[in-house]
Amino acid sequence: MTRNRKGQTAMEYLMTYGWAILIIIIVAAALFALGVFNPGTFTQSTSVGFSQFNVPTGSWQWLSTPDPDTFTIILANQAGSRIEVNNVVATAGTSSVCDSGALTTQLAPNQESTFTIICGVGVNLVQGTAYTASVTITYDNLDTGLNDFRSTGTVTGVVS
What is d(CA 73, CA 56) in angstroms, rounded to the nearest whole number? Predict the structure, then answer.
């Protein structure tokens, strides 16, 4: 009689833990399906740095399609004088480089302009993943005649 009771207790013990483990697996699968474990879900668009330029929040975008990738950013002249943007370079990671090449875009004080940069072939950042890009802007001050200024900043976002 005692032996039969021990078997029942052991079976109840295993069933209780089995149901608890099953519930944990179901909850983890639901959280995964909702994107809770994807860091891109929690990444906000932020920009820091950029002396002499204003980069409005959310005014940049890294597109993974079409291939090659493209990087678009809106820059506003905050230098207080007329400037000419000569080059914009965006780097995400070690091999994801987007270089505008030679530009001659003139901006009056407080004027905005959109720069779309085609990246090198094979960058292929994955859509929906978070990225941090370092952006360097090379420009000349047209009012003072001084050349080769650099403004560097960082933007974060999610690849579209």
Answer: 9
